[in-house]
Specification:
441 residues; alpha/beta; 16 helices; 10 strands; disordered N terminus
Length: 441
């Protein structure tokens, strides 16, 4: 059984395993807000460090994607309101006002937090039901936090369970069959505008995973000329060679911006890469011919004010709603099977958690019994002058053995996890009954 040491106490004490979560996602916040609360990988590790240094959390993982920003953690001993403290930190980190997040943040603790994470891993909480990308993003966020030393036995157990849930749902159900991705949804949107994409030209801004997926979808639909622009020209050239496209240097972006009929952007950036002025000049270079732009980045790559330009058809990730709904309806019959797998793994985690908490109660009871035994022996033997040292040792040995016999059965049940599932409420009552928390005050 893993040991859990409370960060704020050098003494052994009650182990309370509560997973807490706060976050915003595509259901609660529009892209205009989500782009303000994203974490880069470096910021995610910084946040994990600060949450632990401030005693808000003992373990922490930050998950940040284009559709969600979430903080997961195990609250510290002294933190009686972890969700509120996590939200305060969240707002402070991103320098965002309380009113801006009002009604946008969800908060879960205990099994509800674990269920949410498992649903994220399974792809049933995604904008695109069954999307494959989220499992890889979750694995990366967890691995980085683990390597950084930000996790511990509880989040390790939870996130490893989440990864197992994600793999099982995709292998045992049809939730992930022919999955709809953000990239595919963006290309389908282009097909609604242009119909057949054959003969049309496209420019892809970015060369990451999403850009690769977009290019694959476009190639499958017979796109004509294809150009790739990326900050790293070597990466753009590598991708262009693989797909039969043309790599363009980042510095030459404006010179080619007026060529494509379709422009798809997916570049990591803290602010807009394509300004209104830049796009206005591009449209002028096209002699007024319309251009279709899909901005799949969060934060957005295209300045919002560009939406008013004549003959510019601009869509962002939140404009894929109708395609998302069609994708969901095709697979939603599989959701109950996915939820059954999720519930199975939640039960496993709760059994582990109950056994761990029960183990701490047994240890605390042993300590309390030994303390009372020593006090009682000292008190009674002080009145018995005729008891020899050997007899005193014998009494101590017998009472020691009595305590161990009393605790033998509960210790065995905890060690083997028998009958612990669903017993957390009873454990709390037992702790209260014996005044174990009072002993530590």
């Amino acid at each position: 059984m893993p040991a859990i040491t409370k960060a704020n106490s050098g003494q052994p004490g009650a182990i309370r395993i509560h997973v807490a979560l706060i976050g915003c996602n595509h259901r609660t916040a529009p892209v205009e807000l989500r782009e303000r609360i994203t974490f880069t990988p470096q910021q995610a590790l910084q946040a994990a460090d600060e949450l632990r240094d401030r005693g808000i959390l003992e373990e922490a993982v930050v998950l940040s994607t284009c559709n969600r920003s979430e903080l997961y953690g195990v609250p510290g001993d002294a933190n009686s309101a972890p969700a509120e403290a996590m939200e305060d930190y969240f707002r402070s980190f991103h320098r965002i006002g309380k009113a801006d997040l009002e009604g946008r943040v969800y908060r879960w603790t205990g099994p509800d937090a674990v269920r949410h994470l498992f649903r994220v891993a399974a792809g049933v909480d995604s904008m695109m039901l069954g999307e494959a990308e989220i499992l890889g993003q979750l694995r990366t966020a967890y691995s980085q936090a683990l390597d950084h030393g930000a996790t511990g036995p509880v989040l390790n157990r939870v996130f490893q369970g989440a990864l197992e849930v994600g793999k099982r749902v995709r292998s045992e159900t049809e939730v992930g069959a022919r999955p709809m991705s953000v990239a595919l949804a963006g290309v389908k949107l282009a097909e609604r505008v242009f119909g057949n994409l054959k003969g049309h030209s496209a420019l892809i801004l970015g060369a990451g995973n999403v850009a690769e997926q977009v290019i694959e979808c476009l190639r499958n639909r017979g796109i004509g000329s294809l150009r790739i622009v990326n900050r790293s020209f070597d990466r753009a050239a590598e991708l262009a060679k693989k797909v039969g496209g043309e790599a363009v240097a980042w510095e030459s972006l404006e010179t080619v911006l007026g060529i494509p009929d379709i422009l798809v952007t997916s570049v990591g950036s803290s602010g807009p890469v394509l300004t209104r002025g830049l796009l206005e000049r591009a449209i002028a270079a096209r002699s007024g011919r319309p251009v279709f732009v899909v901005d799949l980045a969060v934060p957005r790559n295209v300045a919002p004010e560009a939406a008013g330009l004549y003959n510019l058809y601009l869509y962002n990730i939140d404009d894929l709603g109708e395609i998302v709904e069609q994708n969901k309806k095709a697979r939603e019959a599989e959701i109950p099977r996915a939820e059954a797998i999720i519930s199975e793994h939640i039960a496993k985690f709760e059994a582990w958690r109950a056994a761990l908490e029960a183990g701490s109660i047994v240890d605390d009871l042993r300590g309390k019994f030994h303390k009372q035994r020593e006090l009682l022996i000292r008190e009674k033997l002080a009145e018995m002058d005729d008891v020899s040292p050997d007899e005193r040792a014998r009494i101590a040995h017998i009472t020691e053995e009595l305590i161990e016999r009393v605790l033998e059965q509960p210790s065995d049940k905890v060690r083997h996890g028998r009958g612990m599932r669903g017993r957390l409420a009873g454990l709390e009552a037992l702790r209260h009954l014996f005044g174990l928390d009072e002993d530590k005050e």
